[in-house]
Amino acid sequence: MSKNFPVFRINNFVDYNQCQHFGDSFYIRKFHQHICENCFLDKPHGHDFYIVLLITQGRGQHIIDSKTYEVAPRVLFFVNPGQVHAWDLSEDIDGYILFFTKEYLLVEFHHNQLSKLPFFHTRILEPFMKLNQPETEEIHRAFHEIDLEYLAGNQYCHDLIRLGLKSLLLKIERKYARGSSGRKKLYQENLFTKFEVLVDQHFKDHRTVSDYAEMMNLSLKQLNSLCRKLINKTPGDIIQNRIILEAKRLLMHSDAPVFSIAETLNYHDGSYFIRLFKKATQMTPEKFRTQAILNKVA
Are 118 and 184 in contact (CB under 8 A)? Predict the structure, then answer.
């Protein structure tokens, strides 16, 4: 993630006063209150935690990694650690927003369960989910029950909140699966999840498909087949897309020269990096930055 825009932790946010004992692990709040008391959120920023956002009222735009999504009632949004987002919202916006760290949830969740939740793989799947009215009411109740426990802070509150959070995520997963036309089952393949995580960790230093095949103890043919079946892209496409995404972030959220950004991404030949970026986006890095400033890049 770029160092040129803020990366927030949970304790950076104005909280209900009596809930500071949750520190840097968990946060829940009515969305209208959250927006009113944390007015810096319209600027691009990142987090080191997961976000689940339910919209029940109001409209606007939610920009996640340079893509713009419509904000409307009965929509859930999901944001991962490391993603960059901002929003432009109507004054009557409301709903619930919830933050949690991986460490807080994993007391109740096994790591592979969290990694398999499809709605947190938003670099490939869409980072939102539309609900019908009964589904919205059910999810809103789940948020409300967690909120009541959070506010009360009684004995065993952490245990009950973790159970409520696990229940909420599993309810969302069940609904997400019904609307994903079978893609979720394929997407949950352990090997593909591992590949995505490895790319996210090593894309600056390891750019060849053979590097990742070796890390995963797969042949090139096996890794290529896996990616083709799931998203109809090659492993090389996925690696390059991650590099281009990071380049876009740096171009949009910093004033660093293009050649400096190339160095940051371990491209010591700046001209080659410019050609690579132009081939992927149909524009030069400078043109992309200019259009982003003019709000013409979605």
Answer: yes
The Cα–Cα gap between 285 and 275 comes to 9
pLDDT tens-place string over residues 147-166 = 999 988 888 888 899 999 99
Q: How distant is the alpha carbon of residue 63 from its chain centre? A: 11
Per-residue tokens: 81: 């650690």
Nearest to 90 by CA among 61, 46, 59, 122: 59
Number of Cβ within a 10 Å radius of residue 288: 23
pTM for this model (two decimals):
0.64
Phi-psi map region of 291: left, alpha, beta (phi>0 left; psi -120 to 50 alpha): alpha
Contact 286, 247 (CB under 8 A): no
Look at the block and give the residue holding tokens 């760290």.
101
The three-point CA angle 54-45-297 to 5° equals 90
Spatial strand order of the sheet with 60-64 comes to 7-8, 45-47, 84-89, 60-64, 67-71
User: Residue 106 and residue 115: Cα distance in Å, rounded?
Assistant: 11
Q: What are phi and psi of 43, to 5 degrees?
A: -90, 150
Q: To 5 degrees, how large is the angle CA 65–CA 69–CA 73?
A: 135
End-to-end CA distance of the chain: 20
CA distance 64 to 148: 30
Q: What is the token pair recorded at 176?
A: 């997400």
Q: Residue 136's pLDDT is what? A: 96
Can you tell me the distance from the alpha carbon of 44 to that of 32, in angstroms, rounded to the nearest whole number? 19
- pLDDT tens digit sequence for 22-65: 667 899 999 999 998 887 677 888 898 999 999 999 999 999 98
The number of C-alpha atoms within 13 Å of 19 and in the hemisphere containing its C-beta is 22
